[in-house]
UniProtKB/TrEMBL annotation:
Keywords: FAD, Flavoprotein, Oxidoreductase. GO terms for molecular function: NAD(P)H dehydrogenase (quinone) activity. The keyword Flavoprotein applies. It comes from Guptibacillus hwajinpoensis. Residues 3-291 form the FAD/NAD(P)-binding domain. This is FAD/NAD(P)-binding domain-containing protein. GO terms for biological process: aerobic electron transport chain. The keyword Oxidoreductase applies.
Amino acid sequence: MKKLLLIGAGHAHLHIMKKFQEEQLDIEVTILSPSDYQYYSGMFSGYMEGVYSEKDMRVHLPSLADLAGITFIKGAALSIDAKGKVVLTEKGDVLSYDLLSMDIGSYTAGIDVPGARSHALRIKPNYRIEEVAEKMWGAEYPVVVGGGAAGIEIALSLTARRKKEGKKAVTLISHSTLLQSSSLKAQSKIEQIARSKKMNLILKEKVANVTTTSVITSGGKEIPYDQLLWLTGPKAPEMFRASKLPIDEAGYLLVEDTLQVKEYPAIFAAGDCATLRDYPDLPKAGVVAVRQSEVLWENIKAFLQEKDGVRFQPKKAYLSILSTGEKEGLLLYGKITLHHNLSWKLKNKIDRRFMEKYKTTNL
């Protein structure tokens, strides 16, 4: 019997696990993931604010795997021998495969700033969210670094929580305007929202150094903190470069529109960890991984049956809804920018519906 090895339990692999409940294939399936839980990042802002519990935003992987007839192994991959078709884990175990699929997300960029690695909190890998949240909730002077969607959402959600508790506002530091990769209208709107909620914004200044008590910017500002959260965008996993697999300039695994590595067609990848050769500018966002998930499933089946796979075609625009705290949301879709409580209600509905598909227990 052939072996399928799933590395990571991101959005696309959750879908694969669910499909194995519905459709049995003549294949032995194993999933390797560093935590018993897979956390859904779309709900992190609501969790930070106190809208969701930890159980709302996580999937118990051993239970889901058991229902799908999949072997769950708690651990992380260290390297891949694509020619020998084996994966070495951080514990020293060697896992063989006939078919390998990667869905391990990304890591945190910019952490090489002096002092950041030793003093800043990081959410990635995502199973750190509960520990990080506890520390940020208890902070007297919380500071968030990062002006992208993740940094803004978390900072606004913490600000909303702290407002209810009568605590000081959150400070957000960004080397650019907020939401730099979005439209000028969206950039202007999110800054207006942040300022209206009394958030302390330090924009267009890079972090030059981090001490045990202060963040020092390139402009010479010294911002005191007792908890510092680093949310500066995605960085590729080092494993692909170390394993001498085909990668793009940033180190992400390079795949074709079938989600396969051209040089090693038995290796698939989806989500943030991969770059599509024909669509290199596709955003590193969960919505993309969700749309790739059915393509991944169909192409795993096609590979086993020695048939041609289907091709992933990105949409021209993706719906994005940022939680801005107090059950309001900023909806972005193409040229549409809308800030309203109805935007948050739509986001809440989408997120809860996603989680309901994979929840198997109350763990």
